[in-house]
Write a structure and sequence with these properties.
alpha+beta, Aminopeptidase, 8-stranded mixed sheet, 8 strands
């Protein structure tokens, strides 16, 4: 394994996840500008240092948000390939968050975000202590729908005019996944075991 793996929260064969930092502005925004054609009309990541500063600061400072850069390790030297975010994190009995993500153009179609999402699920359902992740996807965004389907998300519903994106209220499909049950657990949990 490459020597650079220590810099990641979690890593797989080709990518590692690490936290956003303000120092990543130059590379992130350059990748975002190169990827405009890929992202539009679905996604609008920050393309300027100023916009990135606000975006990354919120991911670093707000307790209801977590942000991860998807970086190619080994020969790629940690190049940023995309990003994953968990927003609107609710603790307590709900233990849920809303997933956001994007691959950059140079990394698209190479399976890097699929690997990264698998790493994120293990991290979210492990160290982050979440039970459920939800991804809200515009119906016409076939690559995004395919990504979550590969990861095991299930389609749960449709929300008309759910999010304001690019000046218009957009319809979204609601996809979700829950943490796997611990081995030997039953649907009723401890209550079922006592009956």
């Amino acid at each position: 394994m490459p020597d650079d793996l220590g810099r990641y929260l979690t890593a797989g064969p080709r990518v590692g996840l690490r936290a956003f930092t303000l120092d990543d502005a130059e590379e992130f925004t350059a990748r975002a500008r190169e990827s405009r054609e890929l992202h539009r009309p679905w996604l609008f990541p920050p393309c300027t240092a100023e916009a990135y500063g606000g975006y990354a600061s919120a991911l670093v400072e707000e307790p209801a948000r977590e942000g991860f850069l998807v970086c190619e390790h080994g020969d790629a030297g940690g190049a940023i390939a995309g990003f994953l975010t968990v927003n609107n994190i609710v603790r307590g009995a709900f233990r849920s968050g809303a997933l956001g993500y994007g691959a950059f153009a140079h990394a698209a179609g190479r399976g890097l975000l699929t690997e990264a999402l698998g790493l994120l699920l293990a991290y979210a359902f492990g160290p982050l202590g979440l039970h459920r992740l939800e991804a809200n996807i515009q119906p016409g965004n076939a690559p995004s729908r395919a990504l979550v389907r590969r990861a095991g998300f299930r389609l749960e519903g449709f929300s008309p005019a759910m999010l304001l994106i690019d000046g218009a209220w957009r319809d979204h499909e609601r996809w979700a996944i829950t943490a796997p049950e611990p081995e030997g657990a039953t649907a009723g949990g401890e209550a079922a075991q006592r009956l």
